[in-house]
Model the fold of this input.
Amino acid sequence: MKFSDDFIFGGATAAYQCEGSTLEYGKGKVSWDDFLAKQGRFKADPASDFYHQYGQDLKLCKMFGINGIRISISWARIFPDGTGKINQEGIDFYHRVFQECHKNNVEPFITLHHFDTPDTLYQKGDFLNRETVDAFVDYAKFCFEEYKDEVKYWFTFNEIWAVATNTYIEGTFPNGEKYNMTKAFQIMHNMMLAHAKAVVAYKEAGYKGQIGCVQSLEYKYPYDENSLDDIQAAKNEDVLQNQFLLDATFKGYYSTETMEIVDRLVAINNGQLDLRDEDFEVMKKAAVLIDYMGMNYYQSRFIQYYDGENDIHHNGTGEKGTSRFCLKNVGRRMEKEGIPRTDWDWLIHPESMFDMLVRIRQQYPNYKCIYITENGMGYKDEFVDGVIDDAPRIDYIKKHLQYALKAVEAGVNVKGYFVWSLMDMFSWTNGYNKRYGLFYVDYETQKRYPKASAYWYKSVSETKEV
Ligand code: NOJ
Done:
């Protein structure tokens, strides 16, 4: 079987990770600027200088059969303070980028928020504060109207789970808080509310395009499938990362089964959630109105029962074997014999992506369509005389694409796949040694070099076969 002729073979990017010019051209500060400066490990300037190099990157897309690109708009380039005064230079920049996309026949898929909340709103509590929900909806409406002739595919948020866990459980995103399950659930809910309000606004205004959100999913298997404790631990993590957000996306409320686990986890932490009836009214509307969901998929997890103390260590250096994730009363992530890992300890387990796609179709039969909005492999690429032979990345992408096609055969409506990432770029918690791109970036010269994977991806896009 082949991919359909209109299948999107895309590449993904995110504003803060590729644009550079983080405080130039009228852009306001975002939550990351001070956080990274304080850490002093690395900064997002000039990154891949997409602000000036987008012409080059879009030409490469065209040359290499890449017919879709995920780009995020930086909220603080449009509204430097999150609300109020607009920055015309930022608005014009994205017009230029979108026009360049169309000139090269590369369909832009636009994300409104990719981890970069404007600092003014971040300081007031980020999305834990409902003022940010309203500010986001205003920003979204502004973009819908401003770019209505150039953008047909919108995503409200990127990876709400990543925001929650990295900000409040793992402590790797600003401001580094750890083990606060209540805040993690609350911010997920508030962001899904903001998503829903933006979706309803988009549809009520009658725009012609499509809209959805991007969730980051990981299949959670019990470490020992015969252990009832491990089965429960896997379910806990699944609800925490997957099911809470999938319920919000496709149902617009949380099922009883979901809430049993959520309530237990929040109670253990002596917390309380603010979930209002009026939130569910709008979320239920959006669940019917969305056109698709974006799924970022990188790995699965094997979870073991755990009742020890919280103990998380994030491998943000690529030293294989240094990760630990043990969450009290939830579970502990384990390695599994026979399943290879990247240098950052991410399990390479492509069949689990198939399991997740089939699960969505079964559990949420009203889903309409799925784009795999990110998938790819972080790798320490070697640059040898202008040649980058990234065979392990080709193998990774190939296997995931094969399972995507298998899912299509099994009846899941998958309409596109975006490699993370189009070109090498800044990594939030690793800086620059973790490369994902189809195109190698020399950060000194900003020159791009196609990797072996780019040539291989081109042939897949041309033949529609993998
Ligand atoms: C998820 C995020 O959307 C992106 O920003 C990140 O760099 C990649 N995955 C790789 O971790």
User: Anything to note?
Assistant: Residues 14, 17, 158-159, 296, 374, 420, 427 surround 1-deoxynojirimycin (CB under 6 Å). The two ends are 9 Å apart (CA to CA). The first helix runs from residue 15 to 18.
